[in-house]
Design brief:
With 218 residues, the protein is of the alpha/beta class. The protein has a domain of 108 residues: 3-Layer(aba) Sandwich (Rossmann fold), CATH 3.40.50.300. It has a five-stranded parallel beta sheet with strand order 2-3-1-4-8, sandwiched between helices. Strands 6-5-7 form a three-stranded antiparallel beta sheet. The structure holds zinc ion (ZN). The site of zinc ion has 7 residues, from loops.
Length: 218
């Protein structure tokens, strides 16, 4: 039973690898942004509060995030979990530690997907998506058959968030608020660094061997 946190810059591949861990090892995956959207869809009072913040383009306040997480984490306390998108800063990390410690179930490990900023730029700025079938390409790593068309014939577009300025802003937020967590978890002896600059298959192999050894330490 593993309780994991995934940490890394935007574009490090946490989402893909989190889904892989969840599927291969049968560990429930909790993605913070999905949990909030789920709460909104449920129509609960808490969901209404979340929606009013989201609609105004505001961050959902921590006390609301904590209430959502408290319930979700309690549900998976016996099965373990892979948490993605939380914590994003030291204060949230301390809250998570306190909550899990109060349940007698501290984090097993934090997987840090380490990738440099230029690689992030190549991955995110190179991304093109087919408007017809939804397939995603990368100009640098996985180019479409030609510059304008998907193999299905559909037109390609770039997501608004995948432009230089917006990516830099997200990288800045990580560097300023989230990167202190690397030292925080490292000092607690639970940080495991994954070389996330490798290709998808290479990262998957490393992740797989790390999680396997966490499950059955030799
Ligand atoms: Zn297509």
């Amino acid at each position: 039973m593993l309780r994991l946190v995934l940490l890394g810059r935007p574009g490090a591949g946490k989402g893909t690898q989190g889904a892989f861990i969840s599927e291969k090892f049968g560990i429930p995956r909790l993605v913070m942004s999905d949990l909030l959207k789920e709460e909104v869809r449920s129509g609960s009072l808490l969901g209404e509060e979340i929606r009013s913040h989201m609609e105004r383009g505001l961050l959902v306040p921590d006390d609301i995030v904590y209430r959502v997480l408290e319930r979700k984490l309690s549900e998976v306390m016996d099965t373990g979990f892979v948490l993605d998108g939380f914590p994003r800063n030291l204060e949230q990390a301390r809250w998570l530690d306190n909550f899990l410690r109060s349940k007698g179930r501290p984090l097993s490990a934090v997987l840090f997907f380490d990738v440099d900023e230029l690689t992030v730029l190549r991955r995110m700025m190179g991304r093109l998506i087919c408007e017809r079938c939804g397939r995603s390409y990368n100009v640098f790593y996985d180019p479409p058959p030609d510059a304008r068309r998907c193999e299905c014939g559909g037109s390609l577009y770039q997501r608004e968030d995948d432009c230089y300025d917006k990516i830099l802003r997200r990288l800045d937020v990580f560097n300023e608020e989230t990167s202190p967590l690397i030292d925080y978890y490292s000092e607690r002896g639970i940080l495991i660094r994954i070389d996330a600059s490798k290709d998808l298959e290479g990262v998957r192999r490393e992740v797989s061997s790390v999680v396997s050894s966490l499950l059955s330490p030799s």
